[in-house]
Amino acid sequence: MMEWKKLLSPERLGQKRSMTNDSVHYRSDFQVDYDRIIFSSSFRKLQNKTQVFPFPKSDFVRNRLTHSLETASVGRTLGNMAGQLLFKKYPQLNDSCQPSDLGALTSAACLAHDIGNPPFGHAGEDAISSYFKSKAAMPYIAGLNVVQKADLQNFEGNAAGFRIMTHTAPYHSNLEGGLGLSFATYASFIKYPRPSYPFPDIHDRVSLKKYNFFWSEIPVYDKISAELGITQYKTGELQVNHRFPLAFLVEAADDICYSIIDFEDGYHVHLISFEEIESAYFEILNREQFDLGRYNQLNSRETKIAYLRSKAINEMVQQTAKVFIEKEEDIRAGIFDTALIEKTPQIHTLKQIKKTSFEKIYNSETVLKIESAGRKVLPGLLEIFVQSVMSDEDKFLAKLRKLIPQEYLDINHQPFEERYTNLLNIAMFVSGMTDQQAVRMYRDLFGISLADY
Asked: Tell me, what's the pLDDT at 24?
């Protein structure tokens, strides 16, 4: 069974902990992690990346950055609440850390949870994958091993995020460790502790649903899991690590935010009615503690929705923290591997919200049109930039290397000799673009503009 004292280690990847001691009196190690993430350029790019609605015309609608900040806020509260309950259960933990450390740790991982998402949301992942499955890419991926091919043909934003935070480009520094976060924060970020291939036989474990690190980052993940004492199990021929316990809290914070808040965004763009959102939020609330008199004094529908949303999130946080404490021993033993919200009393309401969101929001005309455009933009960019890096035959294409930031090439501004590294770096370059940057680049290179941009 995994041990809490070892799991909550503040030791860092790529540097000694003493290097952060200048701030020890003002910030905890995990607060330092939060600050490093929020000041990173990859995090700033989230302000122009899609949450649900690409190129939104309403200021009310969230983007990936606001979603990440809100998820980090919910994660902090959830982590603090779980920390208080956990330290009450295990008072000896006070010798090495404090309850608020769980809040800071969970919040930091929540802040970064979408840092690797490509343009156009999850449709962007599909678009990148589709290029590497196409005939145009076959000559370039020939000779890669099965895991390397799976990384590219099943491109995953979670794995891209892990690479962003752990990888240091030679152009920038000879130091290793990326952002140099604590092992515990990296592990909390890893919701799916497996590589892209082979796909596991068992599908009832939520941690096997996707993958969270590319072939190139397997050694880094192995180092993190060994440092924290994360245990393993076998599924088919695959030896897999159990999920780090606080990754369940990160997942829950994200689940709470996107299910409740995406629904609110649907209202602001007139896809969800006030009656639908009011009814759904009321179903989540603890009716006995709800101040109906105060609610009835609110005049505007927007104010009422904001009030109900805050109460709904608070109720979900409390219920989720209770489930976490009830299941924490089974989590550390690797027995429990289910999303925490699945065990809350509100799960049926949340599933209905997601069902309605899927029908009315995620499949709305506006979303589908831009996602469809994204499926043309990203493969188009990948094709031309992969050719520019992988072939010297076309002089014009070779010139296009100048458009690629040097961090995605080697130190002499020439392609890496290793084919997989070249291809992954170009995928990361395109994936790292904002929605607007990708559309602009596509328009400039191909002379084609998209509607509504």
From this structure: 54
For residue 206, which of 190, 222, 218, 219 has the smallest C-alpha distance? 190
Q: Which of 200, 220, 245 is the last residue of a domain?
A: 245
Q: For residue 250, give both structure tokens.
A: 């990160």
330-359, pLDDT tens digit by residue? Answer: 999 999 999 999 999 999 999 999 999 988
DSSP secondary structure string, 173-190? Answer: -S--STT--BHHHHHHH-
Query: Within 14-98, where are the H helices?
Result: 29-38, 41-44, 64-89
Q: Which CATH number is 270's domain given?
A: 1.10.3410.10
- Strand pairing of 238-241 and 232-235? antiparallel
Q: Contact, 327 vs 252, CB < 8 A? A: no
CB neighbour list of residue 319: distance below 8 Å, 6 or more residues apart? 344, 345, 346
With H, G, I as helix, E, B as strand and everything else as coil, classify residue 3.
coil
Whether 13 and 146 share a structural domain = yes
Residues 6 or more apart whose Cβ sits within 8 Å of residue 4? 86, 90, 93, 332
**Which burial class, exposed, middle or buried, applies to 296 when counting CB atoms under 10 A from its CB (0-12, 13-18, 19+)?**
exposed
Nearest to 82 by CA among 248, 231, 330, 312: 248
Whether 83 is covered by a domain: the verdict is: yes
pLDDT attached to residue 365: 77
274 and 371 inside one domain:
no
241 sits in which H/E element: strand 238-241
pTM, rounded to two decimals: 0.92
User: What is the C-alpha to C-alpha distance for residues 116 and 122, in angstroms, rounded to an integer?
Assistant: 11
Instruction: Please state the rounded mean pLDDT for residues 266-278.
Output: 91
| DSSP string covering 293-328 | HHHHT--SHHHHHHHHHHHHHHHHHHHHHHHHHHHH
Residue 451, domain member (yes or no)? no
Domain boundary among 205, 227, 245: 245
* 68 and 156, same domain (yes or no): yes
User: Residue 18 pLDDT > 80, yes or no?
Assistant: no
Of 79, 90, 62, the closest CA to residue 3 belongs to: 90
Cβ(107)–Cβ(36) under 8 Å? Answer: no
Burial of 16 (0-12, 13-18, 19+ CB in 10 A): exposed
- Show the domain range for 421: 365-446
Minimum mean pLDDT range among 42-46, 69-73, 363-367, 380-384: 363-367
Distance between CA atoms of 353 and 223, rounded to whole angstroms? Answer: 40
